[in-house]
Structures are given as structure tokens and as C-alpha cells.
From TrEMBL:
Its cofactor is Mn(2+); Mg(2+). CDD domains: NT_PAP_TUTase. Gene3D superfamilies: 1.10.1410.10, Beta Polymerase, domain 2. This is PAPD1 protein. It comes from the Eukaryota. Residues 137-295 form the Poly(A) RNA polymerase mitochondrial-like central palm domain. Pfam families: MTPAP-like_central, PAP_assoc, RL. Coiled coil: none annotated. Residues 10-78 form the RL domain. InterPro entries: MTPAP-like_central, NT_sf, PAP_assoc, RL.
């Protein structure tokens, strides 16, 4: 029930609630012989502890959320500065503490072992064993979702990482906030994924009503720079140096200021996250909210996305390093498009969500219309009752036979559209309609995806589940999470026949298409 009630909140409501929670939270590095009861007893002397959990990261750590922000100030007043005998310390008092026992010998250890919250998902080999115990493929897909999705504890830790960075940015920009975006907040994040965060000044740019009163037009005197990009680079350069020089546990800080979207990369050791900090990227936030809405509308959406992304990773179709392969974001958009194409559709198109938007949902960013409804209650539930095992097989069937040479994928319309240019895979950016989010994908990588999809569809259609269970062989989704080349390379080659000529065929097709267009233009004249 708690899960459902959080699911019904708007994206902004959830963000605001979590950011507020993070501001009342501290992170404590604990001694190895820890008595949980005594720790909570001590912390309660500074104020009511609303929630806490323990996790393993270079030793035992505790995330502690107080009911009141004032409890943190009380705790900070009681904490000492580290002994500077070996190293001189930077005297920045953060919300990261180290607790050690004064008399470790006399302190009895916890009788019941501490429950440690997992911060990474189980290996695929262990997952396959779990999947084999399920009753059907739909159950297997929900097991995978439960093992891989972000836990409540992990989400709290992500928001705390942002809140700790915000403590630094507020030294320069007192009204700024640091918020997570992307996989940390869009309901499609996997345990272990990076934390994308952005520095937001939008709250400071809202004109206060007081300005309208009195005889004067008033404004702050501020540094003026020739471009927004230069301002972003300067801000990130200073914040990057600040984190590098003064940030407890901020290591491997890299300032990548000449990228299309300038950012600072760093490793946040106290939480164990790899972080990317950028300056307010409004369209990326809208993408996060759109996916949040799709993820909340129907439980099958997330289960299918997690399954397809895990399958793609096992078969080397995706990679954490940048390159010519399909990204997780592109894969997620392909799943969304497929679900829009079902009869009846499982999720609405972006244009349909835009029609439901009211005045407060209107967002025009850089000339792009990024408007869509934010209130989930306004979106009618789907009448589609297809099971996940059917949808999984149909996904592979659909994209194994998709005409990538001619067609592109458009989530705004929810239908195939002629490709505007000759990229092997063309997925329209939902908001910046002149961009292809899969422009990096080359022909061999697309052909590999098609071959794997066809092979997977074939396995699901032909397999004898009962026989496989008798033989103690992986079945259903478990069978798809084993690299195919190991067991059935000859069958694979047969199903790959004909795909190799896609490159030549696509070139011929584009030539024909250009000739036809030129003829039409000539006729028009």
C-alpha cells in the first residue's frame, strides 16, 4: 500500500519530499563492534530519530534521518575535530561523522547481527538460479525487477549525496539546490547505477511579489558573462575545485567543461556512488518526469524495461562505456514505443499526455514544447490485459522484424515515421524533435541487436519448459540470460543469415528514397 501511495504522487511532490528528508539526514561511519540500541539511544538525545538503516561500504555505515533539522545542529555541536597529528584537516563541518568506541574492550557487541541493506544487485548467475524456481515467465520478470530496482534505502542515500554536495554549492549560491535526475528518480534505476545530479538556480530566478510594490524597479548587481555556457563552465569549475579541495570523501574529481553538456565527475566515497554534476538541464528533468509517469502507470512497464536491459547487457548489446552500441536510454525508449503500439495501448503517446496538460504543466524550454500532464489521476488506466510473458515474446518478435532501414521510432506520435536521415537506428528525442537519441549506434551493433531479438523470440516460442525443468536446465527468461554463442552457435548463424546484407540494402534504399524525393520535387515545380 505504501508503494502504491508513493506511486500516485506527482514527480515534483516526490522530489520535494525526498530533498527535505535528505536535509534532515546524517551519515555515520560506525565501529565494527556496534550495539545498535546504544547508538540510537545516544542519537535520540539530540532529537527524535525518524528512520535509520545500516549498509556496508568500507566498513559499517549508518544513514540516520532525524524528525527535525535542528537535531543535526545539536549533534554537530557535540562532535569533535579529527586529531591532526598525521595530516592537517580542512575545517569543514559536514553531515558525515565517524563514531568510535571509547572503551572497545568493555563494550559488548550486538547480540543479534546488524541487518545490512544491500546496495548492489545479485550477480546474473545467482539471478538465473532464482528465476528457475518461479512458476512462469511473468513471475521471473517480477523477480528480476525486485532484485535489480533501487531500494528505498538506496534512493535515500542518493538524495543524501546530492544534499551533501548542495552544502558546498550554498557557500557560493545560498538559494541553489542540487537535485538528482535520470535513473536515480525516473523509476528505472538499477542498483549500482551512477548518480546524475544538477545544480539548480531556478528557485532564485523566480521574481518575488514584493518587487511589484514601491516606486522602484529593483534588481541585484550580478557578474555578466557573454554566454550561458561560459557561466556554466565557470560555476562548475569553481564547484569542482571546491569538492576536490574541501569535500570529505570526494575523490577522482574530473572537470569535463568542454563537453556538449559541461559536467564534473567524481567518486563520493562515503555513499559509494560515482557522481556526475551538471548545471540545470531542464529538458533532461522533463525526460526524467516523463519516464516516471510511464513507470507509475502500469507495473508491466518497469518489469519489461528491466528485463530487456538485463538481457541486452548479458549479450553485450549495451555497455557502460560510451561507444557505438545501444544505450540503456535508447532501449528504454524502444520498450515505451512498443507498449504504445499494443492493441489496446498500454501507455499513452506523448501527444496524448500533452492534451491532458493544464496551465501549470506548460513548459517551453529553448523553443521546444515539453508540456505534458503531471497528475497521474488524469490518465485513464489501460484496458490491455496481456501478460508479461506474451509482451516479452512480442517485443523480440516486433523488433526482430522491424524495418529499421525505412522507419524511425517516434514516442510523441506513437507510430513509425519515415527516417529523416540515414542513421542505422533513429529514435526521435521526445522533446528536442530535431535530435536522434541513438545517433551513436552503428550498423553492426544494430544487426547484432536484431539477431539477438530473433534468437530470443525463437527460444521463447520453441522451448519445452517441462523437459527443461526435468533436465534441470534454465528455462524461460533464465534461458535468455545465458550468452547464446556458448550453447547454440550454429542455430544462431542460421537466424543471422540475411542480416549481414542490411548495410548494402539500406544504402540502396536511401538512394531510391532520394531519387523518389527528387522526382517529386521536380514534378512539384
Amino acid at each position: 500500500d505504501a508503494e502504491i501511495s508513493t506511486r500516485k504522487k506527482t514527480f515534483t511532490e516526490v522530489q520535494t519530499e525526498r530533498l527535505d528528508q535528505a536535509e534532515r539526514t546524517v551519515l555515520i561511519k560506525c565501529p565494527s563492534k556496534l550495539n545498535e540500541k546504544k547508538l540510537l539511544q545516544y542519537l535520540s538525545s539530540h532529537g527524535n530519530v525518524r528512520s535509520h538503516f545500516f549498509f556496508e561500504n568500507r566498513g559499517i555505515n549508518a544513514l540516520v534521518e532525524f524528525s527535525e533539522k535542528s537535531s543535526i545542529a545539536s549533534l554537530q555541536d557535540a562532535v569533535g575535530i579529527p586529531n591532526a597529528a598525521e595530516h592537517h584537516v580542512v575545517p569543514f563541518k559536514s553531515r558525515l561523522f565517524t563514531f568510535t568506541l571509547k572503551n572497545p574492550v568493555s563494550q559488548p557487541a550486538e547480540e543479534t547481527p546488524l541487518h545490512l541493506s544491500p546496495q548492489c544487485h545479485i550477480p546474473v548467475t545467482d539471478l538465473i538460479q532464482k528465476l528457475c524456481l518461479a512458476d512462469n515467465i511473468s513471475s521471473q520478470m517480477y523477480i528480476l525487477l525486485n532484485e535489480y530496482q533501487l531500494t528505498e534505502e538506496n534512493i535515500k542515500l542518493r538524495f543524501l549525496a546530492c544534499s551533501l554536495v548542495r552544502d558546498f554549492t550554498r557557500a557560493y549560491f545560498p538559494d541553489s539546490t542540487v537535485k538528482p535526475f535520470g535513473s536515480s528518480v525516473n523509476t528505472f534505476g538499477k542498483l549500482g547505477c551512477d548518480v546524475d545530479m544538477f545544480l539548480d538556480f531556478h528557485d532564485t530566478q523566480k521574481s518575488p511579489t514584493k518587487m511589484k510594490k514601491g516606486p522602484f524597479e529593483m534588481e541585484f548587481q550580478m557578474k555578466r558573462l557573454p554566454s550561458e555556457r561560459l557561466a556554466t563552465q565557470r560555476i562548475l569549475s569553481v564547484i569542482g575545485d571546491c569538492l576536490d579541495n574541501f569535500g570529505p570523501g570526494c575523490v577522482s574529481v574530473q572537470k569535463i567543461l568542454n563537453a556538449r553538456c559541461p559536467l564534473v565527475k567524481f567518486s563520493h566515497q562515503p555513499t559509494g556512488f560515482q557522481c556526475d554534476l551538471s548545471v540545470s538541464n531542464s529538458i533532461a528533468i522533463r525526460s526524467s518526469e516523463l519516464l516516471y509517469i510511464y513507470g507509475c502507470l502500469d507495473s508491466r512497464v518497469r518489469a519489461l524495461v528491466f528485463t530487456i536491459r538485463c538481457w541486452a547487457r548479458v549479450h553485450g548489446l549495451t555497455n557502460s562505456a560510451p561507444g557505438t552500441w545501444i544505450t540503456n536510454f535508447s532501449l528504454t525508449m524502444m520498450v515505451m514505443f512498443f507498449l504504445q503500439k499494443r492493441s489496446p495501448p498500454i501507455i499513452p503517446t506523448l501527444d496524448q499526455l500533452k492534451e491532458l496538460a493544464d496551465a501549470k504543466d506548460k513548459h517551453i524550454i529553448g523553443g521546444y514544447d515539453c508540456s505534458f500532464v503531471s497528475d497521474l489521476r488524469k490518465i485513464k488506466p489501460t484496458k490491455n490485459t496481456e501478460t508479461l510473458d506474451v509482451l516479452l515474446g512480442e517485443f523480440f518478435e516486433y523488433f526482430g522484424n522491424f524495418d529499421f532501414r525505412r522507419n524511425s521510432i517516434n514516442l510523441r506520435k506513437g507510430k513509425e515515421v519515415n527516417k529523416p536521415e540515414s542513421s542505422p537506428l533513429y529514435i526521435w528525442n521526445p522533446f528536442e524533435q530535431d535530435l536522434n537519441i541513438s545517433k551513436n549506434v552503428n550498423q553492426p551493433q544494430l544487426e547484432k541487436f536484431i539477431a539477438m531479438a530473433r534468437e530470443s523470440a525463437w527460444i521463447l516460442q520453441k522451448e519445452d519448459k517441462t523437459q527443461k525443468i526435468i533436465n534441470k536446465e534454465p528455462w524461460g527468461l533464465a534461458a535468455l540470460l545465458i550468452p547464446f554463442g556458448k550453447s547454440n552457435s550454429s542455430k544462431m548463424k542460421n537466424r543471422m543469415k540475411g542480416i549481414g546484407s542490411e548495410t548494402i540494402r539500406s544504402l540502396l534504399d536511401s538512394l531510391k528514397l532520394n531519387n523518389a524525393n527528387n522526382q517529386q520535387k521536380a514534378v512539384g515545380k
